[in-house]
Predict the structure.
Amino acid sequence: MPEDLTVVIVDGGGRGHAISEAWESHPEVKRIIVTPGNDGIAYNRQKEVVIDRRGNLKDADSILEVARRHIGLRERHLVDVAQDDAIAAGTVNKLRAAGYNAFGPTAEQAWIESHKGHSRDFMERHGIPHPDYRIFDSEDDAIAYVRRVYEKNPKKAMYVKASGLAQGKGALMAESFDQAIGRIYAMKSFGASGHNFVIEDALFGGEFSAFALVNGQDYVLLGNAQDNKLSEDGDKGQQTGGMGGNSPAMVTMGIEDAVDRELFRKAIEGMWGEGYSYEGILYVGGIRVGDDPWNIEYNARWGDPEAQLVLPSLRNYPHMVLDSMNGKLKGAAVLKDGKARVGVVGVSKGYPGDYSAVRGKEIYGIKEVAEMPNIRFYSAGISMHDGRFYADGGRLFMVVGEGNNIPEARDRAYDAMNYISIEGGDLHYRRDMGRRDAERFLGILV
């Protein structure tokens, strides 16, 4: 491997920051390019990190141009395509066709995330536990269906989900007939992603996200986390891209083998058998129903914010990726540091709605937090000018506390959050990240 290995990472937010940090740990990586990235990713780094804003996550040609600017067709330089829109747009296909080493699934392999209706049909064919569902492309047909459902059970809980990519915001819960109709009409707001949509039964239990590195029939399990999507404490408020979480997810204790067997192995063998040999990160969004794991969704990449919780625990992630790309994943060891992590996402007040009044306001306290022991800081939507930090998005950053257990990690994360503010008091974050697993650890919640 050349001493000056360069890695291009295709992502815009905190997930890209965490992936760049993982690659930074490899002794032979000299330079990291993140596109489109954000300014905060390049702050306080040990190696050269370049932010190239010219990459458009929905335009594979623009990503190819970024690769051409920064790396030649040398044998081991590579492009890590981490973001869902970029994967679905065929960025991996485009890069490989041009002769670049690209890590991630092709567009043909990524259907397991980018078409939720086809994904549910796939689960049905391969006996993967999943909720009852129907697929629709007509509002009238969908309304007729939910009318029949609520006539039989007026208290039924269900989800209406955009079949295409919706930045983690396309799953809307309904608990009444009128609410279900509103959710069906809301599919229009997702554009082409909502032209087809899935209506499925709601499942109740402890949710978790789990990750595997896959190359064809070979795979290794990387870890799990618990994500929190709703904007307010107590799992209330609006659906977001993620407000934080913790790793490991204690709800998976005792069912780890079943998660592997029922949710990973069946899917990986099923894709292989159907001619969709999968390569890259496979994400299981699962839920524990009693003592059984059920599938909520599959994604074809790391989650955000889960990547910021799981990746720091992996001591040899770049080596495993390179092994996978070289066809040597079988039998690869997964080395972990054994720490617990709790992450808190800081967002602009108003997110996920209108937060335009916060854009451009200064964020204070980041430099102090970035120097704290047992704390990691990941930038998601930050611009920088003259060494100062400014809000440039909805989700702005994530603070991750590390410890020997969830309560210790949680205390550290919230101690660090106390240092950060936005002018005008326009910072919002949830104050209950990791609470359930801290209580489980302490024996309060059973």
The chain has four domains: 5-106, 132-201, 206-325, 340-442. Residues 36 and 53 are 4 Å apart (CA to CA).
